[in-house]
Amino acid sequence: MSLLFPIMAFGSLLVGVPIYLHLRRRDEKNLVEFPTLRFLDDQPVARARPMWPRNWPLMLLRIISMLLLIAAFTWPYFNNEQTVLVEESRVYILDNTLSAQTRAGFEKSRNRLADEIESSGVGIQVGVIELGSTAQIMARLADGKQAAALAVRNMAPHSERGDFVDAFRTAAEMLSDSLGAKRRIVLLSDCQANQWLLDANSPPFLKNIEVEIANAPEIDIANLALSTPRARRVTRDGDSWVEVGVTVTLQGDQGPSEIIFRDRGREVERVQLEPASNKDDTTSGQTDVADNPITYGTAFAQWKVNPSEWTAGDITLEGDTDDLAGDNRVFFSLAPVRKGKVELIVDSLFLRRALSPEVMSNRWDTHNVLEDSPIIRSAVTAPDVLCLESHRLQSADVRSTVRSDLSAGRGVILFVDKITPLISGFLREMGIETQASQQQPTEPGTFRYVYAEHPIFAPFRTTEFGDLAEVDFTNYRRLKVKDATSLAFSEAGDPLIFESNAGPGRLIVFAFAFDRSDTNWPIQPTFIPFLDQTLQYVRGESTTETFFEPGESVVWELPAGTQAENIVVAPLDPSTMGIADGIDPIIVEVDDRKARFALPPQSGHFSIRYDLADSLGAILDVNPSPLESELVYETEPRVLENWGRSPDDAASELTRTDKPASDRPTAISLSKMEALQQMNWWYILSAAMALLMVETIWGVQQDK
Amino acid sequence: MAVLEHDRLIERFDPKVMSLLHTLDMKARYLVEGFLDGMHRSPFHGISVEFSEYRDYQPGDDLRHLDWQLYARSNRLCIKKYTQETNVRVYVVIDTSGSMKYRGSKAWGSKLEVSKTLAVALTSMMLRQNDAVGLLTHREPSDAATFIRPSQKQSQFNTIIQQLQDLPAAGSGRLSDLLQHMIRLIHRRSIVLFFSDLQEESAGITEAFQQLKFLGHECMIFQVLDRDELEFPFSEPAVFRDLENGERRMIDPTGARTNYLKRFDAFMAEYRDLFHSLEMPHCVVRTDTEPWEALTLFLKERRRLM
Prior knowledge:
Largest sheet of chain A: 8 strands, mixed
Structural class of chain B: alpha/beta
CATH topology of the largest domain in chain B: Rossmann fold
Number of domains of chain B: 2
Number of helices of chain B: 11
CATH architecture of the largest domain in chain A: 3-Layer(aba) Sandwich
Shape of chain B: elongated
Radius of gyration of chain B: 22 Å
Oligomer: heterodimer
Helix content of chain B: 40-55%
CATH class of the largest domain in chain B: Alpha Beta
Number of strands of chain B: 10
């Protein structure tokens, strides 16, 4: 116990309170307030002692009450045989990302850490942080070492991806409240180079903290990894097929390996990877480290499926030598096809062809409405999506149909090929205005900007479905937003695609027609996938991403037409499409049609069911980050200097010039909770309270 | 002119009764009624208006002004015509320095309470004779002076009472501030009734009173003092604390009395000389005795100024 300890210093000040109150309440005797003091001289008469205590017992009672209160609250901090001096506060960061499992590295680090905690000296405070997708404190500095060691031994390896900066910040925060003269962070990690990259230019936050990187880097790594599975349905000769591609990462010397594709637990294809052909088989490649090159390749497979059923498969890599087994399996899934109905009120031959049964079989049934045909609506015949060109809006019947479809929650896609005052009025009603000047671009132009996060553009962020930059526009109508959202812009800055907020149904408006006089899009490879994606979107299909990494936070939005109070997230057994054993299901409450939850730290398939229903709502594909397969290490990162780590010399200087550890405030071997539970504490506190009560009653009586 | 019978007046004032009265209104009424009752003839009866001449009654004239005695004698309906006396503007100025808070053991009120009572009593008398009365004082914690413009309305009495009712005494150096405010605010020739203990260095005050005199105002100084200040009757050693600046001094009264009285007399003489040289009526009002002298002085001066 030291006077430097804040509670003690504060408590000492409190002792003065009752004395002051006591003296303050004493009336001054023989005090005359007089208006003509200036005519009187000060006379050296023995001064009365107005500040002398009058009621000794009452004052003593107050002082004892305060002393007891102070004693009660400082009790846990008094020195006794259980108290130890803290020389060092040490926070261990245990890397539990996927790459740390290389050559059983995580198990080694975990056991080493547990042993080190158990054998650490009594003058060392220990805290433990687990680095997964986020940094989690497993043991605080005030916790007991046995509990910390137990928590460490119980850690299971995870497949998450996390950056070091998060863990170091958490550790620095823990150390800022620590008692030790020496503050140290010990990193137990494989020190993957790409884990240091985030926040490399962060302002310094490791001032006066030593950092020790405990592990030696692994050398001669040999690793085969799978990542980023991609699956899509295609229709070929009237049959529905699934095409699956996966990125293969090769590092170091490899023996013969096989890639096995499974669908719902059944093996559907096996691809041999020969060592000699590994690097030749790549579609793209790059070398990260001169003496340990990483090469990327792609493997494909396809097989027939029933389009009305879920596809839930995995791809497994089996090889002779692999230092990291956790990245040898990835998961993919495809929702069953739900055939939709489209009503076409268009003249564009490209649209009619694209939505013909030959192209869109198993996906869309199309009904063409001719120029003079009546539009009939009933519960049976109502389409999911209405596609029309703006010149058909001249008909009141068509305008009324669009309004009623939107009101009924159905989707509408409008291609503006013509503008008349009547059409302008209708567009204004939909939140879009026509610009006064309709001057057209003189040169063909492409998209200048597209809202890539929007579901209709999301699949085109990679070039797998083609490149939107190849789409040219030679003509379009100049529209502007009134109460809508612009999704794409021309090179001249004019909005080309809009989403209107006019009704419950979704409305996408194109400022051009799918016609060669307006654009070359219909002859681009992106046309059919884009059209399909847009139709699916306006139909109200769930557009929430289903690809995640282990431990990732998810905000799940209920699909249109689904009502649920809870969702159940559970591991999926693909062979039975039921709930798999091993991980407990998570039940999450739905708030404002959204459910927020964190995925388990393991990869795999996870099902989403609504309100404990048996039917599947969605399948989430949880796969490790491809970054975790880049087994390149950096054990002396310069970024630590940016973060403000004390260099070794400075750290030792700090230790020498700082106060001796024995003069520093002490820590307790008991936790605060244990200290509070001591009966003595309660006795002292009760006595203080009782005395204060007596004092109050006595004081009141005295005043009377 | 009213005749004052001093003995009868003394009988009509009891300091104990005065100290038991809580509101200013009641105190003032007690004072005025007692004072007026002690005179043979009310000094206010017909004071504010003077009979001028008769004229024949015209339909529509106020019947209250008909001279019924003349009608009885001569069977003639005549209306009495009166000449309204000159409107006099009177300002009541009350010093609220901390020293005015003092109330001795024999006093019927603190110096401020006595000042307020006298001021209200005089206000009541002045309003009865159609004088316009205003007020200037200072109210803590605001630095600005409180000013009520002179008015002849009867409601002015309540306005002034309301202002004075809970007026506290606090601070120091208020006297010279008030005088400066007076000089700035009063433009027409007026009567200024000044209530203060004058416990302030006289240099600034002298100059201010000289200015008031130069501007043509008639000032009456009511110096309100307590018996303790005048006689210093203390006997036990005690700590004396100044009411204005909080300064403390340890005093043995037996040894200090002679010097105190000497200095106090000098202080009083200085002001007496000042007001004598400026021809300003100066009346010392004791808080433990009846204030008739002050009221008489006022009436005497009031008549002189007419």
